[in-house]
Design brief:
This protein has 297 residues and is of the alpha+beta class. The chain has 2 domains: 69 residues, no CATH class; 208 residues, Metalloenzyme, LuxS/M16 peptidase-like (Cytochrome Bc1 Complex, Chain A, domain 1, 2-Layer Sandwich), CATH 3.30.830.10. The protein is 40% helix and 19% strand. The protein has a 6-stranded mixed sheet, covered by helices on one side. It has a 3-stranded mixed sheet with strand order 1-4-5, sandwiched between helices. Strands 2-3 form a two-stranded antiparallel sheet. A hairpin with a 2-residue loop joins strand 2 and strand 3. Helix 3 packs across helix 6, helix 5 packs across helix 9 and helix 6 runs antiparallel to helix 8. The longest helix is centred in the last third of the chain and has 18 residues. The protein starts with 8 loop residues before the first helix and ends with a helix. About 7% of the residues have low confidence.
Length: 297
């Protein structure tokens, strides 16, 4: 919020020139359109853009649609981020009075070999709200539903999450409960991380997680809006587009040994990230206590 006071019109104009009107950072994505027509439209509306006093032709733009693609090789320098871990607590008034806790560890980013295993692991853990009408895609047989939401009456929600960036990412579990049970919830989240690092997952739940992840990916791509957004994001991230068959093959190749190795790599020697929000956060263990839970004896 403090940064908003420093925002002015010139900053917005400079940002527009540097990123939005720079052909080297521009991707034109489309779905359901002939490639030649896409090229023609790109030439008409973006062919005049200049970069470094050099007029850029349409063939230098990175363009891709569902069936064809061509692109340029260009990558800006990336400043490597360093994961530090730590704790953050915020006392705020919530509508339901629940305390929300999130526990996370570092994992690889969009360019990591652990990207797909992390997605499989998130799907395997699954979770959601304590109330659900069920139905396809709800993940009612995921580990967090079976071992947390169905076991502890005070667990209002419990769900695995991932957050990926170019150079790094996070793998975590978040949950909510009444303030008096926030300490127990934190311990449960930590226990499920530890289980992943110690025990191999069952063949049945691994198969279920892989199939559900493939189902989610393919179902999302049935939407034209999601399809061309996926095209644009992949071109921006990888400078190419990977098809659904290649992605499904990578998902099928994930083994239970991969998941345990990923969990161990994320936790061993790494500080956890612990975030807490609620009306009363006093029952959540201190960061120092939580950190000791993951230290090797």
């Amino acid at each position: 919020m403090e940064a908003l006071s420093n925002l002015n019109a010139q900053i917005v104009v400079d940002f527009r020139k540097k990123y939005l009107l720079n052909p080297h950072s521009l991707v034109i994505a489309a779905a359901g359109i002939e490639h030649e027509h896409l090229v023609s439209l790109a030439q008409q509306y973006f062919g005049h853009l200049q970069s470094n006093s050099k007029i850029t032709t349409p063939n230098e733009l990175r363009m891709c649609n569902h069936d064809n693609d061509f692109h340029i090789n260009h990558s800006d320098g990336i400043i490597k981020s360093t994961y530090n871990g730590g704790s953050y607590k915020q006392t705020v008034t919530t509508p339901d009075g629940f305390t929300r806790v999130a526990l996370a560890f570092p994992t690889g980013g969009w360019h990591s070999d652990d990207l797909v295993p992390a997605c499989v692991l998130q799907t395997l853990l699954g979770g959601g709200s304590s109330f659900s009408a069920g139905g396809p895609g709800k993940g009612m047989y995921s580990r967090l539903y079976r071992q947390v939401l169905n076991r502890y009456y005070w667990a209002e929600s419990c769900e695995a999450f991932t957050s990926f960036h170019a150079e790094s990412g996070l793998l975590g579990i978040s949950g909510s409960t009444i303030p008096q049970k926030a300490g127990e919830l934190t311990k449960v989240l930590a226990e499920h991380f530890m289980k992943l690092a110690i025990d191999l997952v069952d063949d049945e739940e691994l198969d279920r997680a892989r199939n559900m992840l493939k189902c989610n990916v393919l179902t999302q791509l049935e939407s034209r809006l999601v399809l061309f957004e996926d095209v644009g994001r992949q071109i921006l991230t990888y400078n190419k587009r990977e098809g659904s068959q290649e992605m499904c093959a990578k998902i099928d190749a994930v083994t239970k040994e991969d998941l345990r190795r990923l969990a161990r790599a994320s936790m061993i020697g790494m500080k956890p990230t612990l975030c807490t929000v609620g009306d009363d956060v006093s029952n959540v263990p201190s960061f120092e206590d939580v950190e000791t839970w993951f230290k090797l004896s």
